[in-house]
């Protein structure tokens, strides 16, 4: 019998091809943007627009990916489930696009993008194309066609990067940064359109049979996921969207507010190096967890996966946070460097978020998705309150701490609710050992300040290797065979 943990690791590696390599290639655009947009305010506009994209994707995909995985495990014809999910998304997107077409100017004005309704139109088309591709891509994941999934994602990413390079290296005029913003949106629109073209066979493999009972069950299951997803995105991206508006409302100029968004967003990218790991893992983990749901040792497997995961994400936390002296050059313009102080805070936030993602399998497997909505709504409420109270005083530092506090709260809530409704025997000793070890190592390493930056970096990376050794030895002693 094959080891399911090795299977998960293998699929994570393949999904990582598109997620990690693709994101890293996309990250190469950040030095280009920060170099070309000499005023952080212009990059702030781009960052805010893409913060709103995350909100829209959640609504327009309507939780159909997880729903598709859930219902295909219930002995229902896969083609029927796929078709029902696709029809629901199609109806939602048609209504959305019609609304955007009619109200794009009014929406732009409300977002303080006066006279730039075209931003909203293009953005609407991008998110519709992405959400429309979500179910066919989920189908590839469910059928374990990880390589094909990865290739489609990579092609889309490479098209986006290629167009950005052409636009910004040969066409962009620094005296007209608004056109640069349009170039980014147009490149993304074209790359988003590539995906449905490459998935065209999937769209034709649908059933036109009406199944109202199944559709009703799908909507009942998915609705709490949408609420949870939407509230979750509030926690992930609302800070960048709120930052500008809160600063403007407190008598700061619009340009200053947009510059703060640009600085925070550029530095946020460094913290998202952990998010890349999370994304590739999530692509593999969700179908894996559902596929193990009938395994009699499933809870033991879920617990062991969590232990490995915590060790790996804390390793990534140390690797990035203790090498900022090198990684900061990823951001080409020194005007952005003042925000580097938020990176370790946001890295820790992403560790808590990753643990929460792992725990969330309990309410997805048990069908109690309403609890996911409750947890996310509590987090969303805390995000809004913390940002409103402290952003006017502390600026983007408050955004970073609010994110960390909220993810910690969600992680703790999910653990206790999960142990009540779907108990999984997580190894808390290993969790606390890895957490305390990583934070202690970070504190010791950052307390050492030598004149030679090279020696400082050498010491820092020795600490990173030490933590990796601790994790390896701990996991080796606890290793299970399944």
Description:
With 482 residues, the protein is mainly α. The chain has one domain (4-478). Helices cover 83% and strands 0% of the residues. It is built from 19 helices and no strands. The chain has helices at 4-27, 29-36, 40-61, 64-72, 78-110, 117-142, 146-171, 177-198, 200-204, 212-249, 254-291, 298-321, 324-327, 343-359, 361-365, 369-394, 396-421, 428-447, 453-478.
Question: What average pLDDT do the residues reach?
Answer: 84
- The backbone outline, from C-alpha atoms, is globular
Give the number of domains: 1
Contiguous helical run count = 19
Class per helix and strand makeup: mainly alpha
How many beta-strand elements? 0
β-strand amount: under 5%
Terminal CA distance = 8 Å
Radius of gyration: 22 Å
Order of helices and strands: HHHHHHHHHHHHHHHHHHH
| Overall helicity | over 70%
| Biggest sheet layout | none
Low-confidence parts lasting 5 or more residues at pLDDT below 50? Answer: none
């Amino acid at each position: 019998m094959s080891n399911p943990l090795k299977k998960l690791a293998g699929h994570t590696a393949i999904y990582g091809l598109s997620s990690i390599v693709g994101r890293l290639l996309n990250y190469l655009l950040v030095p280009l943007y920060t170099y070309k947009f000499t005023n952080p305010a212009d990059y702030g506009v781009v960052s805010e627009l893409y913060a709103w994209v995350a909100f829209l994707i959640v609504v327009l995909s309507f939780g159909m990916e997880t729903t598709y995985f859930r219902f295909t495990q219930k002995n229902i014809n896969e083609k029927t489930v796929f078709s029902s999910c696709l029809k629901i998304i199609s109806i939602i997107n048609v209504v959305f696009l019609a609304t955007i077409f009619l109200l794009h100017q009014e929406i732009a004005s409300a977002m303080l993008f006066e006279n730039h309704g075209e931003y909203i139109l293009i953005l609407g088309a991008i998110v519709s194309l992405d959400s429309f591709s979500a179910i066919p891509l989920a189908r590839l994941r469910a059928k374990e066609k990880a390589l094909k999934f990865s290739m489609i994602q990579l092609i889309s990413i490479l098209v986006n990067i290629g167009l950005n390079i052409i636009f910004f290296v040969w066409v962009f005029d620094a005296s007209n940064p608004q056109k640069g913003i349009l170039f980014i949106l147009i490149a993304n629109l074209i790359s988003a359109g590539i995906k449905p073209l490459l998935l065209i066979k999937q769209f034709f493999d649908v059933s036109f049979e009406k199944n109202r009972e199944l559709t009703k069950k799908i909507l009942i299951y998915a609705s709490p996921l949408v609420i949870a997803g939407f509230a979750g995105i509030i926690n992930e991206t609302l800070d960048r969207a709120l930052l500008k508006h809160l600063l403007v409302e407190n008598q700061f100029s619009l340009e200053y507010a947009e510059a703060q968004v640009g600085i925070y967003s550029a530095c946020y990218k460094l913290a998202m190096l952990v998010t890349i790991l999370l994304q590739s893992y999530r692509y593999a983990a969700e179908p894996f967890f559902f596929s193990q749901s009938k395994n009699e040792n499933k809870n033991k497997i879920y617990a062991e996966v969590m232990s490995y995961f915590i060790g790996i994400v804390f390793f990534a936390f140390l690797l990035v946070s203790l090498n900022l002296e090198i990684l900061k050059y990823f951001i080409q313009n020194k005007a952005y460097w003042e925000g580097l102080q938020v990176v370790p805070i946001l890295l820790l936030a992403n560790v808590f978020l990753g643990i929460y993602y792992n725990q969330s399998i309990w309410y997805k497997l048990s069908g109690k998705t309403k609890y996911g909505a409750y947890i996310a709504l509590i987090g969303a409420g805390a995000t809004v309150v913390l940002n409103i109270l402290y952003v006017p005083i502390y600026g983007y530092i408050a955004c970073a701490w609010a994110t960390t506090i909220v993810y910690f709260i969600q992680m703790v809530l999910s653990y206790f609710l999960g142990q009540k409704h779907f108990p999984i025997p997580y190894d808390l000793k290993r969790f606390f050992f890895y957490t305390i070890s990583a934070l202690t190592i970070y504190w010791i390493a950052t307390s050492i300040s030598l004149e030679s930056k090279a020696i400082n970096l050498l010491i820092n990376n020795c600490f990173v290797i030490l933590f990796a050794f601790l994790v390896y030895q701990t996991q080796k002693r606890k290793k299970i065979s399944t």
